[in-house]
Amino acid sequence: MFTICLLSVLCANPRSVAQQSTKTLELTRTIRTWEFLPVVGTRAGLFGNETGRFEAWVYPLKLFRDFHLTFHVGDRALSADTLARTLTVRPESASILYAGDSFRVRETLCVPVNEAGAVILFDVETEQPLEIEAGFVGDFQLEWPAALGGTYVTWNENQRAFLLGEEARKFAALVGSPTGSDAHLAYQTNYSAMDENSFRLGVTQKGKEKKVLVVAASVAGNEEAVKTYQRLLSSYGDAMRDSGEYYRNYLAKTVSLDLPDTALQQAYDWARISAIQGLVNNPYLGSGLVAGYRTSGSGQRPGFAWFFGRDSCWTSFALNAEGDFATARTAIDFIAKFQRQDGKVPHEISQSASLVPWFKEYPYPYVSADATPLLIIAIDDYVTQSGDIAFAREKWDNVWRAYQFMKSTYDTNGLAQNAGIGHGWVEGGPLLPVKNEYYQAALGVEALRALSNLAKLVGKEDINKQLEAEFEKASSTLDEAYWSQETNSYAFALNQDNRLNDELSVLTTVPMWFGLPNTERANQTISKLAGEEHQTDWGMRIISSRSKVYDGSGYHYGSVWPLFTGWASVGEYRYHREFPAYSNLRANALLGVDGSLGHFSEVLSGDYYDSFSTSSPHQIWSAAMVISPILRGLFGLQIDAEKHQIHFAPHVPADWTTFGMHNIRIGEAGLDFQYRKTPDSVVLETKRTGSGDCWVEFSPAFSLRTQVVNVEINGRPLPFKMQANSEDQHLLLRFPVYDGPNNLVIHMRNDFGLTVTNDLPPLGSASRGLRVLTESWNASKTQLSLEFSGRTGMTYEIGVWNASQVSSADGAKLTKAGRLEIQIPSGPAEEYATQRVELHFTH
Question: Does the N-terminal peptide bond of residue 302 adopt cis geometry, omega within 30 degrees of 0?
Answer without folding.
Answer: no
